[in-house]
Amino acid sequence: MASVTTTTAANALKDVYLPVIREMLNNSVEFLRQAGTNTQDIEGKNAVLSLHMKRNSGVGARAEGGTLPTAGSQSYAEQRIPVYSMYGRIKLSGQVIEAMKSDRGSFGRALETETKGVTADTQRDYNRQLWGTSNGVIATVASESAGVITLNAATTTTQLRQLEVGMVIDMGTVADPTLRGSGLEITAVTRATPSITVSGTVVGTPTTTDFIFRSGAGGDTTNSTQKEITGVPTIVAGSGTLHNVNPTTYPSWAATTSSNSGTDRASTDVVFETVLDDVRHEGGSEIDQIWVGSAVKRNFAAQLKTLRRFDNTLELKGGFKAPSVDIGRGEVALIDERDVPEGAAYCMSMDHMIEFVMSDWDFMDMDGSVLKFVDNEDAYQAVLRTYRELATDKRNAHAYVSDLETTNG
Question: How many CB atoms are closer than 10 A to CB 90?
Answer without folding.
Answer: 21
